[in-house]
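Worked example 2:
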Amino acid sequence: MDFQVVILAGGTSKKLVPLVSKEVPKALLPVANRPLLSYVLEQLELSNLKDLIVVVEGQDAALSVGAWISGAYVDRLHVEVPTQHQKISF
């Protein structure tokens, strides 16, 4: 059976200002000096699930999250980062 992993990572939040901004969406908030999203990606990688979709809200958040993932997980994971307004096909 094939699985498609979809992670709903949010975007920015007015309630979390000044912790969250256009440059630092919720998924990249540091927890113990690592982005929150890194904990999820690490567990999926250890489970040998390496084809992922990370959905974020807003183009700025998608660019920030996509750039961070491509730098941190280069050649380790295949990750698409569409915004919530883009169509996702399974």
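The first strand starts at residue 5 and ends at 10. The mean pLDDT is 85.
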